[in-house]
Amino acid sequence: MKPVIGVTAYRWTFPKTGWLYDVSYSQNALVVHQAGGLPVFVPDWLPEDDLRDLYMRLDGVLLPGGDDVDPVNYGAERHETVKRIDPERDIAEILLTKWAVEDDKPILGICRGCQVMNVALGGTLYQDIPSFFQTQNRHDIQPPDEPRSQLMHDVIIEPDTLLAQIMGDVRVRVNSIHHQCIQQPAPSVRVTAHADDGVIEGMEIPDKHFALAVQWHPEDITTDPRMKRLFQAFVEAARTHIGVR
Length: 245
Hints:
Layout: E1 4-8, E2 10-13, E3 20-23, H1 26-34, E4 38-42, H2 48-55, E5 60-63, H3 87-103, E6 107-110, H4 112-120, E7 125-126, H5 129-132, E8 151-157, H6 162-167, E9 171-175, E10 181-182, E11 190-195, E12 200-204, E13 211-214, H7 225-239
C-alpha cells in the first residue's frame, strides 16, 4: 500500500471569469508519486474540523512553495516588499505543521513551506532578503527568462544531520526562488544548511522521525539524484505511518 501524502493547495481566481480554482504546483505531486507516494491535494479553505479529519487520513504532509507568509503570524509589521499573502493558506499550513510535529507524522517543507514550518513553531522571517540581509548572491530567478531549474548558489549542509545523510554530501548546488528566509529559527528546530552567504537553507527537528525543510526547490532539479533521494526518504518515512492514521 502506498503512503498517502497531503500536498496543500490554495485558491486561485481565473482573471477572465473570476472563477475560483484550487491549485498547486503539479511538480510536487509528480515527484511524490515517482517516489512511491500517493499524493492528494488539501484545500486551504476547509474548516478546521474538516481539515483535521483529512489530516488524520494522511501518512505525510508536504508544504510546497508559494506566496509570502503574512508577518502578523510572527508579530511583525508588513514590509513594503510583501505584495501577496494568503491568510487562509497560512492558517491551514500552520495548523498542519503543528499537528504533524505533535504527532511525529512525516512533514516536508519546500521554500515557503520551510518558512511556514519555522513560523508555526515560533520562529521569524526576514521579509525581504535584499532589504534586511547583506549579500551579493541572488536568491530569486527572473521568470520567464530564467527556468525554475536554474542553479543559483551552493548550499553547505551540517554533516551530522538527517539532510546530510539523505543527500550523501555536505555541499550541493541548488536553484532558488525566494525573497524571504528564516531570521530567528524556532526553538525546537536545528538549522541544517546555509547558503555560502549565510542565508538559512535548511532545518529539521532532531527528535522527530522526519520533520525537515529546505529553502530551495528540489522538485525542479530531480535530475540530481540527491534531490530524488529527499523525496524517497520522505515517502519512506510516511510509509511507516500506514495503519496508524
